[in-house]
Amino acid sequence: MRAAVSSHLNFGRSVHVVRVLRGRLSALFDRLSIFIGLALAVLALGIAGLSLASGKYPIALADVLGALAGQGDDMVRMIVVEWRLPRVALAFLLGGALAMSGAIFQSLTRNPLGSPDIIGFSAGSYTGALMVILLLSGGYYETAAGALIGGIVTAIAVYLLAYRRGVQGFRLIVVGIGVAAMLSAFNAWMIREADLQVAMSAAIWGAGSLNGLGFEQLAPVAIVLCVVVPLTLFLARPMRQLEIGDDAARASGVDANRTRLLLMVLGVALTATVTAVAGPISFIALAAPQIAKRLTRASGVTLIPSALTGGLLLLAADWTTQHAFGVQLPVGVMTVSIGGLYFIWLLIREGHK
Amino acid sequence: MTGSQFGLGRLHADNVTLRYDERTISRNLSVAVPDGSFTVIVGPNACGKSTLLRALSRLLVPASGQVILDSRSISDLSAKDVARRLGLLPQSSIAPEGIAVADLVARGRYPHQSFFRQWSKADEESVIAAMEATRVTDLSGRLVDELSGGQRQRVWIAMVLAQETPILLLDEPTTFLDIAHQIELMDLLAELNRQGRTIVAVLHDLNHACRYASHLIAMKDGAIVAEGNPSAIVTERLVKDVFGLPSVIIPDPVSNTPLIVPKGRQVAPVVHLDTSARAGKERHRD
C-alpha cells in the first residue's frame, strides 16, 4: 500500500527531520523557527552585553568580557558580575517566563488576548501585594509572598468561576477580564485610602520594576524555572494538539482536562514567580508570543521562540528605562509602551485584512 | 482481532445510560457495530446519535453500562490506546490559523508519537498515504484557511486516516458540503470501507444512508428504533415513526437501495401521488 512513498512531505515551509539511534529519537524542526530563535538569542546577548557595559561607570565591552571570564581589575569585576549581571540575567529570565506563561494561556484559550495579565492574575498579585504593603506594612519578601498568594488565589477563583465540565477558553477570558476589572477597582480604592508615602511605594511596586534586584532574587527564580520550564516543554505536544479542538484532541489520545489543568498550574507558577520578584510587569506575556508567532510564521504560539522574544523584550525595555531617559524608570512603564505599540500594530494589521 | 466471544464485533455498547449533567439522553442502550461494516446512524435532531458516537469513542463516560472495545471496557483503556484503534472526526474541529495541510494531517499521528519519537518514518509514510487516499497531496503545502469546504473536509478525514485506526467514527461529515462534494466524500468513505476499515457515520441524509450503509441504525429519543441492512428495514412506516415524516419509498434507480421521497405537509396527497407518478415516468425516459 505504501510502495510509492516519496521521502519528503511538503509542509509549505522548510523543515529538517532528525532521526537518531535507529529512529528511537526523532523530531521535526522548522528551519525558520530555528533561525529566528538563534537570531533572537544573539540579539539578546548583544543587549545583555550593552547593559553590562552601560551605567554610571561605563565599562568597555572588552573589559566586560574579561570580567565575565574572571579577569581584569577587582572593581570592574564587582560592578559587572555582582551588580549588573544578576539584573541582566533576571531581565532575560523573567521576560522569558512571562512570555512562556502568555504562550501557554494563549494556546489554551486559542485567543491572542488570553494572557495572564489580561485574565486577572496580575491584578490579583497586585491585590495580594497591596494588602501586605498597606495593611501589614510588609517589606520586600512579605510583599513577594503576598503577590504570590494573590496571583494563585485569583487564578483558582477564575478557574472555578469559568468551570463547567472542564474549562473552555473563551469563558476563561471573559470571566478573567471581569475579575481583573473588579480587582483593579479594589486596588485603586486601597491606594486611595492609604497614606501618600505608602501609596507611592505601592504604586511603584505596581508598575513592575527590576530596580534593586540582585543575586538573592536570581537564585530562587533560577530554581523555579529549572523545574517549571522543562515540565512545560514536556507538555508542548499535547498543548499543541489541544489547538485542534477538545473533541479532536481527546479522540487522538490527549487527556484534555488533565493537560489543561497542568498547563494552567505551570503558567500561573511562571507569572506568579515573576510578579513576586519584580511586580506585575505587563504586556510581555501578551505581546511576546504573538510577535514570535509572526516572526516564525508559525500556525500557533510556540514556547521557545516566545520565551526568547520575551527575554529580549524585557532586556531591551530594562536597558531603555535605565539609560535612555536620564532617570531610572520602572521597567513596567516601558513594557506598557511596548504593549501600546503592539496593539496599534495589531489594529493596523487586522484593519488591512 | 475478531472481538468478543459473543460475536458482537470489536466495538459495542452494553446497556449504557448516557447523560449530560442531569439531562439523560439515552437509557439502557445496547448497540453493536458489525466488524467491517459501513454503519450509519440516522435520526431526527437531538435524538442522541452524536451522543452515542461520543460514548463509542470514549469522549463521554456512560453513567451506567459500558462500551466495549476489543473485549475490554473502553474506560479501562488509556486515551492513547483507544486512539490507536479508533479514530473520530468530531463536528467541532478547529484548524489553527495559518496551519498548512500537511501539518494538520500530521496531527493525526499524535497517538503514535512520544516526547522522544516526534516524527518517525512511519509517521511520515502514514501522512503521505492518508493524503493520497483523500487526494489532498497537491494541497500539501497550502494553508487550510485558504481551502474550499470540500477540500477542508477531505483534509480532516486525511488527519483521522493518518491515525491508522481500523475503526473510523465520523460525526456528520457531509454537513456544509454541496451535493457533489457530499457524494465525493461518501464515495471516499465507501472506498475506505472496502479497504477493510469499519466505518461508523452519523448522517442527516437518509438517502445517502440507504445507498452507502451496510448497516443502518435508526434512532429516536435516545433509543434504537430499528437496525439492519437498509433494504431490509427502511419502510414508509419507519420513516414516519422516526422522523414523523410521511413519505413514499421507491427503489433508487442508481443503486436499487430504498429511496425516500418525502411527501411534505403542504402538498395534498392526491396532487403528490400525481407528481410522483410523473417523476417516475421521467426517470424511465432517462
Automatic annotation (TrEMBL), chain A:
<dbReference type="GO" id="GO:0005886">
    <property type="term" value="C:plasma membrane"/>
</dbReference>
<keyword id="KW-0812">Transmembrane</keyword>
<feature type="transmembrane region" description="Helical">
    <location>
        <begin position="144"/>
        <end position="163"/>
    </location>
</feature>
<keyword id="KW-1003">Cell membrane</keyword>
<dbReference type="InterPro" id="IPR037294">
    <property type="entry name" value="ABC_BtuC-like"/>
</dbReference>
<feature type="transmembrane region" description="Helical">
    <location>
        <begin position="261"/>
        <end position="286"/>
    </location>
</feature>
<feature type="transmembrane region" description="Helical">
    <location>
        <begin position="329"/>
        <end position="348"/>
    </location>
</feature>
<keyword id="KW-0472">Membrane</keyword>
<dbReference type="GO" id="GO:0022857">
    <property type="term" value="F:transmembrane transporter activity"/>
</dbReference>
<feature type="transmembrane region" description="Helical">
    <location>
        <begin position="218"/>
        <end position="236"/>
    </location>
</feature>
<feature type="transmembrane region" description="Helical">
    <location>
        <begin position="118"/>
        <end position="138"/>
    </location>
</feature>
<keyword id="KW-0813">Transport</keyword>
<comment type="similarity">
    <text>Belongs to the binding-protein-dependent transport system permease family. FecCD subfamily.</text>
</comment>
<keyword id="KW-1133">Transmembrane helix</keyword>
<feature type="transmembrane region" description="Helical">
    <location>
        <begin position="298"/>
        <end position="317"/>
    </location>
</feature>
<feature type="transmembrane region" description="Helical">
    <location>
        <begin position="170"/>
        <end position="190"/>
    </location>
</feature>
<dbReference type="GO" id="GO:0033214">
    <property type="term" value="P:siderophore-iron import into cell"/>
</dbReference>
<dbReference type="Pfam" id="PF01032">
    <property type="entry name" value="FecCD"/>
</dbReference>
<feature type="transmembrane region" description="Helical">
    <location>
        <begin position="32"/>
        <end position="53"/>
    </location>
</feature>
<feature type="transmembrane region" description="Helical">
    <location>
        <begin position="88"/>
        <end position="106"/>
    </location>
</feature>
<dbReference type="InterPro" id="IPR000522">
    <property type="entry name" value="ABC_transptr_permease_BtuC"/>
</dbReference>
<protein>
    <submittedName>
        <fullName>Iron complex transport system permease protein</fullName>
    </submittedName>
</protein>
UniProtKB/TrEMBL annotation, chain B:
<protein>
    <submittedName>
        <fullName>Iron complex transport system ATP-binding protein</fullName>
    </submittedName>
</protein>
<keyword id="KW-0472">Membrane</keyword>
<dbReference type="GO" id="GO:0016887">
    <property type="term" value="F:ATP hydrolysis activity"/>
</dbReference>
<keyword id="KW-0406">Ion transport</keyword>
<dbReference type="InterPro" id="IPR027417">
    <property type="entry name" value="P-loop_NTPase"/>
</dbReference>
<dbReference type="InterPro" id="IPR003439">
    <property type="entry name" value="ABC_transporter-like_ATP-bd"/>
</dbReference>
<dbReference type="GO" id="GO:0006826">
    <property type="term" value="P:iron ion transport"/>
</dbReference>
<keyword id="KW-0547">Nucleotide-binding</keyword>
<keyword id="KW-0408">Iron</keyword>
<comment type="similarity">
    <text>Belongs to the ABC transporter superfamily.</text>
</comment>
<dbReference type="InterPro" id="IPR003593">
    <property type="entry name" value="AAA+_ATPase"/>
</dbReference>
<keyword id="KW-1003">Cell membrane</keyword>
<dbReference type="GO" id="GO:0005524">
    <property type="term" value="F:ATP binding"/>
</dbReference>
<dbReference type="Pfam" id="PF00005">
    <property type="entry name" value="ABC_tran"/>
</dbReference>
<dbReference type="GO" id="GO:0005886">
    <property type="term" value="C:plasma membrane"/>
</dbReference>
<keyword id="KW-0067">ATP-binding</keyword>
<dbReference type="InterPro" id="IPR017871">
    <property type="entry name" value="ABC_transporter-like_CS"/>
</dbReference>
<keyword id="KW-0410">Iron transport</keyword>
<dbReference type="InterPro" id="IPR051535">
    <property type="entry name" value="Siderophore_ABC-ATPase"/>
</dbReference>
<keyword id="KW-0813">Transport</keyword>
<feature type="domain" description="ABC transporter">
    <location>
        <begin position="11"/>
        <end position="246"/>
    </location>
</feature>
